[in-house]
Amino acid sequence: MTSLFxxxxxxxxxxxxLLRLVYTANTLSLLLSLLTFVLLLILCQLFGWxxxxxxxxxxxxxxxxxxxxxxxxxxxxxxLFCLIPILMTMFVTIYGKIIDSRQSYIIYFDSRMILLGVVxxxxxxxxxxxxLQISLCxxxxxxxxAFFDPIHNAFGVGYFQRGFTAPSYYYINYIAVVSFxxxxxxxxTLKYITERAEQASLQxxxxxxxxxxxxxxxxxNLMNLNNEMEAQNEELQQQQEELSASQEKLQVxxxxxNEQKNALAVYNAQLEQLVEEKSRNLTLSNQELVRHNNELRxxxxxxxxxxxxxxxRLLGLTDLLNISEHPPDELKKLLGFIQQSAQDMDAVLRDxxxxxxxxxxxxxxxxxxxxxxxxxxxxxxxxxxxxxxxSFSVDFAQAPVAYVVRPMLHSIxxxxxxxxxxxxxxxxxxxVHVVSATGRDGQTLIRVSxxxxxxxxxxxxxxxxxxxxxxxxxVPGKGVGxxxxxxxxxxxxxxxxxxxxxxxxxxxxITFPKPPEADRQVFLENEAAQLFFDxxxxxxxIVWKRNITSVEYRAVFDTILQTLRTYHSPxxxxxxxxxxxxxxxxxxxxxxxxxxxxxxxxxxxxxAIGFKDPSRKGYYERMVKTTAELGLDFYVCETLExxxxxxxxFLTRTV
Length: 655
Hints:
There is one protein chain. With 655 residues, this protein is α/β, with parallel strands linked by helices. It has four domains: 2-164, no CATH class; 206-288; 362-512, Histidine kinase-like ATPase, C-terminal domain (Heat Shock Protein 90, 2-Layer Sandwich), CATH 3.30.565; 521-654, 2-Layer Sandwich (Transcription Regulator spoIIAA), CATH 3.30.750. The chain has 20 helices and 13 strands. It has a six-stranded mixed beta sheet, with helices on both faces. Strands 2-4-5-7-6 form a five-stranded mixed beta sheet, covered by helices on one side. Helix 2 runs antiparallel to helix 3 (53-72) and helix 9 (171-242) packs antiparallel against helix 10 (247-306). The chain is flat.
C-alpha cells in the first residue's frame, strides 16, 4: 500500500499549491484506467474482441501514462487527463459506427453520458484561477455535445443516415446541452465555495501554527529559565555547604528564585488561558455574525412582503384623493382609511425592527398567544387590503393558544390567509377553513384549507416553499410569501406541510412546538442577574445574583424595557434578596425613567421579593409612592414561588 502511494505521489517539481490537484489527477487516472480495463473485459465477455477493443485498451494505457507525465509536465498531464476521455470517446464512437453498421441506436446515447460524466474532471484537477486550461476542457466537452450529430453526419454515420427514424431524437441534443450547463454551473459553484473554504481553512491553520510556534518558543524559554534556575539552585546549595555563615542570604536568594519560577508558571498558565479565551471568542463572534446575517436577511424578506398590502392601500387612497374633489364625509372616510393603513405599516415595521435589533436571544423567546386575538388582527388587515372574510370558517376551540414569536405568527397567518384569497377560483365561491388542534408533546397545529385554484404537487412539491417560485402567473406576486412562512417556522422550531390538487384546492398544516421550558426562557444571564420570560404567566422575571453596581443596575433595566416593547407583558417579578443596596441616584433614575416608560408600554403590575428588608426602607417607600402615582399594582412576596402563585391568580381572574 505504501508503494502505491509513492507511485501516485507528485514529484518535487510540482508546486505546493498544486500538490493536491496533481495527486487527485494521478489517483483518478489510476481509477479510470482500472475502470476502463474492467469495461474492456465486460465488452469482451459480451461481444468478444471487436475492432474498437484495442482503442479502449489504448485509453486505459493512456490514463496510466498520465501518471508519468505528471511527474515532469504536470500542467500537460492534467490537461491530457481531461482531454483524453473526450477525444477518445468521440473517436471510438465514430470509428465503431464506421466499421460496424450493425450497431444499435443505443450507441448514440452512451457516448453522451460519458461526455457528461467527464464534466467533473476539470474541476477536480484544476483551480478556477487556471482559466485557460479549465476553459479549454469545458469548451471541448461543450463542442462535443453540441456538435455530436454534425460530426457524425460528416463521417456518414449520423443517426438518420443509419436508418433510424425516431422523430424525437434531436431532443436528446437539447437535453445533453442543458444537462451540461446544469452540471457546469453546479460544479463551478461548488468549486468556488470549496476553494474559498480551503483558503479560509489554510489561513486558520497558519494562524494556529503561529500561535503554537509562540507557545513552543515561550515553553522553550521557560525550560531554559528553569534549567538556569536549577543550576543556580545547585550552585547555591554548594555555597551553603562551603559557607555556612552565609546560609541566611542563600535562603533568601533561593526563595527569590522560587518566586520567579512560580511567576513564570503563572505567566505560562495565563498565556494558555488567553489563547483559549481568544479562540472561544472568535468562535462565538462567528456564530453571532451568522445569526445576525440570518436575522437581517429575514427582516428584508418579511418587510418587502408584509408591507406590500398597506403600502398598496396608501398609494391607492392617495390616488383617489388626487383624482377629483370629494365631499367632506367621503374625504374624512378616505383619510381614516389612510390613517389605518399607515398604522398597519407602522405596526409591522416596529415589530420587525424591534426583533431584529434585540441581540440577547430575545428573538427566540416564545409568548403564549391567544390564536383568536391574533386572528382578529390578521382579519382586520385582510379586510383593509380588500379581502372578504365572509367565506372564512375559523375554529380555535381545540387549541386556543400557541407558544410563538407574536410578529412571526401574525406574518404566517396573514401570508397563508391572503394566499387563499389571492388564488381563489373564479368558478366557485371561496371557502376557507381555519382550524387548530393539539399535537404530540404540546404542539399546536393550525390547518388552513381552501377550495381555490390549487397546485400540481406531483411536479411542484420540491418548489412550493422555495424563494421566488410562483405557480399562477395571472395573479400579481413575487413568490416570497410561502418562503417567508417556512423560514419563520424553522426559526421557531416549527414546520409546515402542504396538500394541494389542481382546480380543487390547497391545505397547509402549520406546527408550532411548545418550548421545553416555556416558564423559564432565559434571554440574559451574567454575573449580576438572570432575566427570563415566563410564557405561562406572560411575565418577565428578574433574579439578582449579588450586590450590583450602578452600571449593571441600569443595563439590566434597559434590557427589560426592550423585552416589554417586544412582548408587551403586563407584569414583571423582581427577586431583590441578593441585590444589595441601591444608590439614591439610581433609585430616582428608576422611578423617573424606567417605570413611566414601562407603564406607557403596557406594564400593569410589579411583584417584588425581599423588598421589605430594613436596609431598603427608603427604596420601598419611594416605590410605593411612585407606583401609586403611575397607577401600577405593587405587591411584595417572600419567595419566587409565592410571587408566581400571586400572578397566576390575576390570570385566573382575567379568564
